[in-house]
Structure formats: structure tokens, C-alpha cells
Amino acid sequence: MDPLSAFFLGVLDGLTEGLLFALVAIGFTLSYGILRIVNLTHGEFYMIGAVMTWVLYEAAKNPLYSLIIAPLFSAFLAVIIERTVLSRIKYAPEPTIIATAGLLYIIQQSTLMVIGPYSRSVPPPLSTVISTPWFGYSSYKIAVALASIMIAATLWIFLKRTNLGLRMRCVQQDAELAKNFGINVRKIYSLGFGLSAALAAAAGVLIVPIRQAHYLMGFDALLMSLLAVTIGGMGSLRGTFLASVMIGLFGGIVAVFTSPTTSRILSIMLVVVVVIFKPHGILECVKK
Amino acid sequence: MNARRTIVSYLIILLILYLLQFVLSPYPHSLMTRIMVFAIYASAYNLLLGFLGMISLGHSMYFGAGLYVTGLLIINKLVDPFSAIIIGVFSATLLGVATAPILLRTRGPMFIILTLMTSLAFYYAVILFNNVTGGEQGLVLPLERLTLPAGKFLIDLTSPVARYNAALLGLIIAMSTSLTIYLKKYSTLLLAIKENEDRTELLGYDVYRHKLTVFLLSSTLSGLSGSLYSITARYIGASLVSVNYSIMPLLWALLGGQGTVLGPLVGTAFLTVIIDIASSYTSSYLIIVGISLIALVLTAPEGLLGRIKTRWLRV
Amino acid sequence: MSKEPLLQVRDLTKKFDGATVLEDVDFTIAEGEKIAVIGPNGAGKTTLANLIIGRLRPTRGRIIYMGREITGLPPHMRARLGISYTLQSIGVFRTLTIRENVELAEKTALGRNHRREYVSSAIIQVLEMAGITSQMDRPPSVLSPGHQRIVEVAMAAMTMPSLLILDEPTQGLGEQDIGLINRMIEALGDKTSLMIIEHNIEFVLKIAEKIVVLDRGRILTEGTPEEVVTNESVQRVYLGR
Fold first, then answer.
1. Alpha carbon B216 to chain centroid distance?
2. Tell me, what's the pLDDT at A281?
């Protein structure tokens, strides 16, 4: 393939990946925004989404249900975690990081015990190829990109237009104040955390036909989330989304000409460089 | 403060460790060697965690620097083992110097995230250059490289005796560092910084310089652990610089409790033995790491935060 | 004896995100002078102190200390030059013993002042009067908040400052403890300048030679205690509360 086509391919792949990981990343930033915690377990919800898709596919041959079931299951699991562990330690920053690191291992290793160390694949529901003058592009990947945008948009509308969304935003602004206004902050914490897990799981469901399900895949999602919030600003949904897309784009283009590993390294270094100059995220200079 | 009592207890423990090698059968003997090598790492990590309250999730980078530089120098016959160790440790220091300006300007969650990211970059770099480093599979250090003539004798670094005592020597260096910080009351200043950087600065202390000092000591000693690991285990591999090996020292230090000097050793010994036993039953033994972390977080009396933030006692 | 003031603040202005907290603040503190900065809440008093000790950077203006421009210096360097500050909240280290707290402060004095021995023992005497010296090896939590505040002021004093800035030191303190704070200040001698931010007018009138009144980020007026107390605008804005 000539370099120009390769470039376009990289752009498309990068966009798709960026949009998909944006779902994971905004889930991560949501739990930071609402609960003020850094949730290292977040990648594992993504992994659960992917693994459940495979399991449901093997069981029922229809993976579409997993788009509903997996996020619900993850949300449920997340709420249990929030109620039993996180609220016990009162969401204190350092213990939460340690606890979520512990949960990461528990979930990851449990999955290992259940499905084994092998990658599991699921065929894409759409196998048509969209032809362009340069190359054929998988219509499934395009569908994934569109789905990611739709899910993100739905979340946006939910937060901006619904009552529940409003309450979440209040808690995000100032939990103490929200409590004084009669908002049940405990409930919002649980819902918010569940929602963030559901987002990650949804992304996991979508990605299985493209990548495969593997018990270690959560690390990558966690890394991408961390990169996105570092540049986009912790707690900023818009910033995280944009940052994730940008990082995905960057990584996609780089990966075409080098390798996925190099692209990861360069993405990390890019973020570190940005942090040196803009410690609070890129959106800081975009004053509203 | 009973300095004399602290030093005496410390010396007694070292004596016990030294004598232990004569009574242990081969398997526990090599397990003990491994425990001591990791205890160096735990001690190094504890400098940041115990004295300054900083949680790093990226120390595998410094451990890895020592591990790979020493290991590769020996595998590629570039220098003798002793120089390889020194160069390996020094490269960990250099890496610390290079990363400190970025990392030390941040605090709390951002510090944790950045350390995690930078060590992941290191891990991926090891994977990327796997024709040199051996990647995930890793490389074995050849036996011949580790035996050297010294006058009329032959120093065999692969013998259990040599390995045990090399590890012990490294541990002495590491634990002495913590002990010195404590005995010289440097720990008082560090605890003040841990509690309230602002206030300490207002008293006239250059907080950054002190954080840098402890950070460099920590990365250097982590490198020492890595160097010694490559020699005592005769193996270098990417799994040793994965996130797991950034989380392990955190767990070792926390499990060891409040002891300044002894804590890391106790924690490392405890977890290493448990994982050793568990790994013979299941390949998902890392779940023990997860359970331990959760248990720690839930059962600490003042909460884990209290445990980290309160003062660290004597031996 | 140099005629030059110890501290000069010129056109000091601080804005946060569009809100102007301090504007064109101008005053001096002479060597050994004891001034008070008073004003309603939100007037910018603590911001002013934070600018002088370096926790904040000014939007505009200069700070000159001992004849040299310190506007760009970080806090620990200013502390080393002799500016000490106690925060509004109690700033003793809870995880250290009282003795360790005091020693930590003492160590930075490092031969800066030849009166060190004398001042140091005078400060310890005040601690003795408060009954604190019998508990030196316990954590500060065994002391009442008032006594903790006294330890904190003692720490600031131990650094042998040339300029001691106290932010609301008597807040919540009973009369006896306020008296001890007073003694602590006296222990420093006449060569130490003092800038005290306070709401407690009684205390201010006893200690200060000069009062600067801040209101909404600007200096309303400054002068001797008598002048300020009888000033009409001051009475309107502040004292008639």
C-alpha cells in the first residue's frame, strides 16, 4: 500500500480506536469527577465487557444482547464494589488507589481462572467491507465509531437534560453543597460509579470483534484512560473525550508506520511532554 | 530515642540472617536469597512511602534499569560482574535523575498516574527492543560469565553461598540507609514534609531538594535490587518490569507494617512465601496480591491513610 | 542603623481569574516596627501575607526586603532571609512531638542572629510559663488549641526572623493565652519587625505602632492606632460591626 493510503488507514483506525477508548476514558473521568477517585479497576470493567461478549456468543450465538447485559452486569459489580469497599474507606485518595489496584488483580485473576490465558475471538456482526479508492474498510469498525459517538452523545444529553444528570453534575461540583440541597449523595455516588463501569464495559463489548478478549486487556484500556485524563483534565468530560480521540489519532498514524508498541511508547511520551508544559490539561487554555 | 537499642536489634537481625544460611536446606535457602533481594527493593520503595508518603506505581523502571543494564552487560561479555553491578546501579540513579524533574513536580493522584505511565513506557521499550532484551521470554545469564578468577581462587557467583551473601550485603546497604535516615533525625524533617509541605517550606526548608534526595536514594537502591536479581536469579525478563513489579513493593512495604527498618523485610518475606506456596496450586496466584491489598485497606485501624500518614516507629 | 525600611511593598496587585483581590497596595515596615493589618473579611489581608512570603505571585507590583527585590523568590528562600509566617489554621506538625516541632524550627535559624541564645531561652521560658515544657516529648494533640497556637508562634519565633508575620494569632484564644503570645513577641526584642493580621482590636491596640486598614483589596488608611481608631471611614467600614 502506498504511504498515503497507509496514512488514511491509520487515521481511520486511530479515530475508531480513539472514539472507542474515549468511552472508557469518559467513564474513568466520570468516576473521578463525581467520586473524586482514581479508579485503577476501570480497565477491568472493559475487559469484563469483552469477555462476557465472548461467553454470551459461545452460549447463545447472538452477541448483540451483550451490549445490554455486559454493561448492566459491570454496573452491578461496580455498585457492589462501591458499597462494600469504597464507601468503607470513605473514598480517601490513596487507600482508594490501593484498593482499586487490589480489585484489579482479583477481577483479572478470577477471569484467568474462568476462561484461561488464551485470546478469545468473536466474529463481527457486520462483515461487509466499504470500498474506497484506496482501500477497503471494515464497515464494522465504522459502526463502532458511530456507536461510540452515539453513546457519548446520549451520555451528554443525559447529564445536561435529565434531572438525574443534573443531580450528578451538582455532586460533581460540590458534594457538600449538594447534600445541603437534599440530594442523596450516596445514591449518586453508586449510580455514577455504576455508570462509569457500564461505559467501559460497553466499549469492551464493541471491541471484541476487532481485537480479541483476553484477561489482560484491561491494562491497555486503563493506560488509555490515564493518558486521556492527564491531557484532557481530570473530571472534564469534554476534555477527556477530545484528548482520547487525539491520542487515538496520533497512535493510529504512528502505528501504521512503526508498530503498536512504538505507538504506545510515543503516546506516553507525548502525554508526559504535554504535562510538563500544561500540568492541568489542555482545555485550561480554552477559556469559556 | 533509644538509638542504641535500635542499632542492637538491627545488628541482631543481621546476625540471624547471616547464620540462617547455614541451617536452611537448598530450597528455602534460595528462597531466602530471593526474599532478601526483593527486600532491598521494598526498603528502597519504603523510603518514598514511609518517610515521604509518596505512592509510586512506577518503581519497576528503576528496578528494571539495574536488572537490564547489569544483565545485558554480563550476557554480552562487556564487563566483569562487579562492574556490571556498579554500572547497573548507577544507571538506575541516572534514570531517577532524568525522571525526577517531571515526577516530583506533581503530587498525589497525578504523581501516581505519571509514575505508572512512565514505567509502562519502560516496559514497552523493553518489549520493543526484544532482540536485545529478550522481551517477555527473557534471557538467561550464562554460568561462565559469573565465575571469575581472583588470584588463586575462583569466585563462583552462581554458588548458593555467593548469591545468599551478595543479597545479604545488598540488604545491609539498603537497611542501613533507612536506619541512618532515622538515626540522624533526617526522618523528622521528612515526616514534616510528608505531613505538610507548605508549612515545612515556610520554615525555610528547600522541600524539593529533600524530596529529590530521597527519590534518588530510592531509585538507586531499587536499581541495586534489580542488579542483584539478575545475578542471583540469572535471568532478566520483561515480566520483571511490568506493573506487577511496581505494585509488589507497595504491598511488601504496607504488609510489613510500621517498622522503619524491619518492615520491608517482614512484608517481603511474608508475601513471597505465600505466593510461592500459592503458585504451586494455581497459575492465578496473583489474586493473593489483590486480596491482600483489599484486606489491608479494609482492616487498618485508622484506615490505610492513617497507616501511611502516621509516623513510623523504630525497628 | 540604616534608614532604609526592612520591607517595602509597592503597587502590589493580585487578581484571580478576573477578580481583583488586592490593588495598588503600598506600604513599608521599618526595622523593629510593629504593624497591624486590619480590615473586614475578604479585604485581602491573608492574600497580602501570602504575597509577602511567596506562596502567591503578584499580578503586578514589587516586594523589596532588606533592599533587595524578592518578588520572584520561592517561599523557603524568603524564610531563609528572615521572613517567618504563621498560618491562619494551626500549623504545628501533628505527627511530630512538640520538641521535634520546635527543633525543626530552630535548625533553620543557623547562626543568623547573634542574639540567638538569649532569644531562644526567652521563648522557652514562655513555653515553660504555659506549662508546655513538661510535655515536650508528646504530640501536639495533648495541648489545647490555644497552646498549640503558642507552640506555633514559638516555632516561627525560633527561626529568628527579621520580619514575623502572624495571621490571626489570637483567634479563639482566651486572655491568658493571648498574654503568652504577647510575651512571645516581646521575647523577640525590638529589632524584630512584626506584621500582625488581626480582628482582635484590643490586642492590636496594645501591640501595634502603626495600623494599616484594608478594605476590598485597597488600603483605606494607615496611621497610628489613635489616628486609625478615630478615623470616620474606618469606623463606618469596620469598627462599627
1. 13
2. 56
Tens digits of residue pLDDT in C72-95: 899 999 988 889 998 888 789 988
Give mean pLDDT, residues A136-154. 88
Is the predicted ipTM greater than 0.90, yes or no?
A: no
In a domain, B178, yes or no: yes
Query: Does some domain include residue B312?
Result: no
Q: How many domains does chain C have?
A: 1
The strand pairing partners of C38, in sequence order, are C213
Q: Are strands C83-86 and B139-140 parallel, antiparallel or unpaired?
A: unpaired
**Hey, are the CB atoms on A102 and B124 less than 8 Å from each other?**
no
Owner of C-alpha cell 528494571: B64
Beta bridge pairs of residue C223? C211
Q: Residue C141 sits in a domain of what CATH number?
A: 3.40.50.300
Q: Which residue of A has its CA nearest to B128?
A: A261
Of A67, A47, A230, whose CA–CA distance to A143 is shortest?
A67
Would you say residue B280 lies in a domain?
no
CATH class of the domain at A3-122+134-277:
mainly alpha
Per-residue pLDDT of chain C (241 residues; tens, 9 = 90+): 456 888 999 888 898 887 888 888 988 999 989 999 988 888 888 999 999 999 899 999 999 998 899 988 999 999 888 899 988 887 899 888 998 998 888 887 655 555 566 677 788 888 888 888 888 888 898 988 888 999 999 888 888 888 999 999 888 888 888 888 888 888 888 888 999 998 888 888 888 899 998 888 888 888 888 888 888 887 777 665 4
Distances A281 to A275, B108, B201 between C-alpha atoms, Å: 7, 16, 27
Q: Which residues of B touch A94 (CB under 8 A)?
A: 55, 108, 304-305, 308
pLDDT-based confidence at B314, cuts 50/70/90?
very low
In sequence order, what are the residues at sequence separation of 6 or more whose Cβ sits closer than 8 angstroms to the Cβ of residue A195?
A27, A30, A75, A155
Residues of C in contact with B207 (CB under 8 A): 76
Amino acid at A230: T
From the list C91, C96, C108, the residue facing B205 with the nearest CB is C108
Report the domain count for chain B: 1
Whole domain around residue B63: which residue ranges?
Answer: 2-241
Number of H helices, E strands in chain C: 9, 10
The angle formed by the CA atoms of residues A126, A132 and A136, to the nearest 5 degrees, is 45
Cα distance between residue B69 and residue B84, in whole Å = 7
> Is B217 a domain residue?
yes
CB contact under 8 A, B203 and C155: yes
